[in-house]
Amino acid sequence: MVSTELEALRQRLLLDLTAVNRPKQRTAAPWQWGRKDAVLLLLLGALVIGFHIPLAFSNTIVTDYDLYVYFYPYWEYRTEALRAAQLPLWNPFMYTGVPFLANIQTGVFYPLNALLVFLEAPRAVTFSYLFHLWLAAAGMYLLLRQLGMGAASGLMGAIVLAFGGFFAAQAGHINQVQTAAWLPFLALTYSSAYRHASLVWAGLAGIILALQITAGHPQETFLSLCIVAMFACYLTVLSAFHAEHASSGWPHHQLQPARRMPLRLLGWSGYAGALLGIVVALGAGLSAVQLLPSLELSELSLRAGGLDYADATSFSLPPSEIMRALLPPFTDPPFSEYTAFIGVFALGLTWAAIRYGSRQPATAFFAVVFVTGLFLALGRFNPLYETLYQHVPGFDLFRVPARWLFLSTFGAAGLAAVGLDSLSALYAQTRQARQIARDVIGTLGLAGLLVAGLIALKHYLVLPGYPTLFWWEVSAAATLLLILAGPLVLPRALLASAFLLLVTAELWFGRAPFPISHPVPSQAYSAVPPGLAQELQDKGLFRTLSIANPAYEPGDLTETRTLLSTHLPPREIEAFIESIKYNEILAPNTGTRFGVASLDGYDGGMLPTKELGELKNLVLSEGKTSERVKLSDSALDLAAILRDHLQGIPPSDFLGQLNVKYIIADRLADTWANGVYLDLDVMRHLNPAEHMTLPLSLGNGVNGLSFATFLEGGADIPQGMVVATVTLDAADGKRRTFPLRVGIETAESRESARAAGRHEKPATAASRRKLDGYNAYIARWDLGEAVFPRSIHIDAQQQLGRFTIAGISLIDTRTGSSQTVDLNPSLRRVLTGDVKVYQNLAVRDRAYFATDVVPRESVDDQLAALPSLKSGQVAMAPSEATPTVESPSRKSDSSSDGGSVRITRYAPEEVVVEVSALQPGYLVLMDTYYPGWRAWRDQNEIGVLRANGVFRAVAVPQGTHTIAFRYEPASLQKGGLVSLVSASVVGGMVIVWPVVSWFRRRPKPHVER
Q1: CA 514 to CA 172: how far, in whole Å?
Q2: Fewer Cβ within 10 Å of end Cβ, the chain: N or C?
Q3: At residue 975, does pLDDT exceed 90?
Q4: How far apart are CA 56 and CA 133, in angstroms?
Q5: To which H or E segment does residue 597 belong?
């Protein structure tokens, strides 16, 4: 008994000695929600409105290019479908038809988008942007408060994150804003699940991850998961190296014995990893209804298997742009992807965090996140990035490494909060004069090193103009003054207020140059210019190809600027005019908004598919007016916009096979020579000894003729040699003949080849579309009298190369007028204004009946055969052809006399066609072949075949039949089932389990016996 008491006393003494020798730690009480927090969250909402007063309170919209031509059309199309209580599964208005819902960037299943279906797309995007900006700020505030920061520090971090350059520059990528805004809440719920070992919080984190996924920017979701994984490592290290505070469950600063470290680190790592795995599994399960269709599309996408290194590192942040990326531009912003400015004052606070807040565990976490973001944003300029690309999953799936700057923004926001919190804890009476002197000397020394470094690297850095540099210097001086002297002379509240005001003001002015700060009247969105009206008036089923560049100047530009100048500043005026031009040229993907099918498309994500990319390559090859050159197999090249690469209008017969009825072109490549207008977009090529005749029917007489021509491969033709003869047949029966001589009326097109050749350059030349250093040459002949031309005949007489007629105009010098001649009788110009609209008379119907199978096994071979297919022919794999259909003998001059087709219903997800077949054959629907499309013939399901490489076809026996195509993707059904099961599991974790636990913990009533 005595020995037991002595042992207990010894143990107590040991504990007391340990307590005496242990250094005292200041432990902050766990954060509790209070009224002050609610007020500050409302203040953040007021700041969001204050930063965007015109957007919030007037009928204005943002006209950033990506937002206007990509997201507005998608949002409009999604909204119209949801208003009709339908899921928008398929989009028939891009390329030759593509999945809509499966394209994750459309955000069909993002719940917050559904709340905005009653608004027009621009207003819906505006409200979504403002709400998510507040969401990001509120989440960051709550996360910093949970990490032990004061209210002012939490407000500082929220302001830096939400109002910095990242969200301002990415306003044009609304799905990126929506996804990124949830990051602080994802970190908050994960840390709560970690602290409390709570399935409820884990379920909430899974819900937030599902919201990020369905918001539709996979790269931003990937970056968010990287940050949360780093946060999990931070929590693991704290838990392993420090004891837990019994009252709060939050890691304490009391170090554990070193011998326990490996085991504790292993245990906490397993716990953090398992918890993160649960969150990811729940998020993926909840969003499976979106993920499975998107994964199906990704397997068929140009990005399937990952991007090559060149594509994956496109838009890497150049080291020379780092200063402009982190500091406010004020007037001259860098490229939007290179923008993540946090301001000079906020950067000063990050230095204060490292200098005075090194004992705060969150400092190391936010600093690592900040540096990691900058390090990875360098992309190809980073010597280690290629190793990460090769060995770390995810790095080969996305381009634009500069988007890693999001990590820097998040890290800088956290460091700014820590810095302000650390400065607020410094009291004048606790700082000795020696310490102050060290800080002043050290800070001035660091500033001197930075200035010296800038001077040394000035030739390698991209710097803004002197006004911006001046404000950077003034802000830096004010920051140093506040950091060094503020804690000595200012109360904590006043110091915090000064920093908050200065940071907010700097970010306000820093956002000024970005489109989000320059909205324009919504009339720009609803305008229908004449070029677009031409297609809208045609109610047929057709496609349009636009090769028009918005760089043209409208004819009424001066009047428009004068009219708008009374209401808008110059920047908004230019944005307004640019938006109207996007409508007129039917810029991709504006056809989706107007209900006009376009052969072109613009995505930058999972579209187009590989087959559609190859079709695009084929169109570009056919449209090369100098030579047939394929693009590379790079995903970025195959996804290129046709308008940006076509050198001319592809052959009308080929476009007709793709159901292209209208071609929109600008007049930038046309020319005025001596007052005569020449259309240079439609060309005719003649090989040696070939000839062509153009019939004319003019009611007015002409007395002049102008030709634009050039040679290719004819640089060695000697000066003065006749390469072609032009003959004009007139109504008076006379024939007038004019020679086209090398070096006088025409010449080799390529400047470098001509300079090394044997002839000179004619006097008048015009540059060719998309071909620098290539010319067409202008010749003019006076007829001497007015004649009424009936035809023009051109005979090519060159011995080598190819002779091209680029444009012809008939001139009447009596009236000063001229009239262009259509070189291709299948292309009739129906509108000439700010843009030109051609109608393709060779257009074919969307569906046709084929009786002649051209056997081609691979998709590439089928596509290669497409331009040469005749009416009634279809290129198809022999293994898919139906024997009964192949029985008719092939004919070289196949026609469509074997049957007729009529489309009776054409909806995005359903097409119904009536077929009258005189013999067995195939119904070919010139819409994209894609998994999920099913077909029924007279109520009996049949197989859908691939035709012509990219289209759909079904076998049709002799007789009259009704064929119905319906898009019913199995991936959507499977994903919906997985999401339903996952929702049941998460509902049990978040709702049912807490209720059951409460009942189990409830004290039972005492019953006396």
Answers
A1: 10
A2: C
A3: yes
A4: 13
A5: strand 597-598
Q: What percent of the chain has pLDDT over 70?
A: 86
Do 188 and 253 reside in the same domain of the chain?
A: yes
| Amino acid at site 192 | S
C-alpha distances out from residue 214 to 104, 168, 179, 537, 846, Å: 7, 22, 8, 37, 34
Hey, what amino acid is at 100?
Answer: F
Which CATH number characterizes residue 851's domain?
2.60.420
Smallest CA-to-CA distance from 170 within 397, 53, 340 is with: 340
Domain count, the chain: 4
867 domain-assigned: yes
Coil, strand or helix: which one is 731?
A: coil
1002 and 957 fall within a common domain: no
Q: Give the CA distances from residue 665 to residues 532, 550, 693, in Å, rounded to whole numbers and listed in that order.
A: 12, 10, 25
Q: Are residues 543 and 649 in the same domain?
A: yes
Peptide bond into 855 cis (omega under 30): no
In angstroms, rounded to a whole number, what is the distance separating the alpha carbons of residues 752 and 251?
72
765 and 709 in a single domain? The answer is yes
Q: In CATH, what number is assigned to the domain containing residue 771?
A: 2.60.120
* pLDDT at residue 973 in the model: 94
Q: What does the pLDDT look like over 621-633, one tens digit per residue? A: 876 644 444 555 5
The answer to the question of residue 574 being in a domain is: yes
Return d(Cα 989, Cα 137) in angstroms, integer.
28
pLDDT digits over 909-945, tens only?
A: 999 999 999 999 999 999 999 999 999 999 899 999 9
Whether 854 and 959 map to the same domain: the answer is: yes
636, 683: one domain: no
Same domain, 852 and 924: yes
Question: In a 3-state reduction of DSSP, which class is residue 664?
Answer: strand
End-to-end CA distance of the chain: 40
User: Phi-psi bin for 652: left (phi > 0), alpha (psi -120 to 50), beta?
Assistant: alpha
Q: Which of 639, 665, 691 is the last residue of a domain?
A: 665
pLDDT digits (tens, 9 = 90+) for 548-562: 888 888 877 777 888
Q: What is the dihedral of CA 232, 234, 237, 239, to 10 degrees?
A: -70
Q: What is the 3-state secondary structure (H, E, C) of 746-791?
A: ECECEHHHHHCCCCCCCCCEEEECCEEEEEEEEEEEEEEEEECEEE
Judged by average pLDDT, the poorest of 491-495, 499-503, 970-974 is 491-495
Domain that holds residue 759: 671-825
Which residue shows structure tokens 């007038």? 736
Assess whether 820 and 852 both reside in one domain. Answer: no
What are residue 193's phi and psi, to 5 degrees? -65, -40
Distance set, CA 614 to CA 545, 609, 630, 868 (Å): 17, 9, 10, 16
Q: Parallel, antiparallel, or unpaired for β 847-850 and 852-855?
A: unpaired
Q: Which of 184, 231, 189, 195 is nearest to 207 (CA)?
A: 189
Q: Which amino acid is at 321?
A: E
Dihedral, 807, 671, 713, 756 alpha carbons, nearest 10:
150
Of 483, 463, 452, residue with least CA distance to 327 = 463
For 210, the token pair is 């599902």
pLDDT exceeds 60 at position 107? yes
CB-facing half-sphere around the CA of 167: CA atoms within 13 A: 32
Q: Which residues of 365-376 are buried (b: 16+ CB within 10 A; e: fewer)?
A: bbbebbebbbeb
Per the listing, tokens 């991007």 go with: 307
Can you list the alpha helix ranges (DSSP code H) found in 378-432?
Answer: 385-391, 405-424
Q: Examine the pLDDT at 337 and tell me if it is beyond 70.
A: yes
Last-in-domain residue among 665, 684, 716:
665
Which is it for strands 771-787 and 671-673: parallel, antiparallel or unpaired?
unpaired
Report residue 688 CA to chain centroid gap. 47
Specify if 686 maps to a domain: yes
pTM > 0.85: yes or no: yes
Q: How far apart (Å, rounded) are the C-alpha atoms in residues 57 and 573?
A: 19
Task: Locate 102 and state its tokens.
Answer: 């499966």
Maximum Cα–Cα distance across the chain: 141
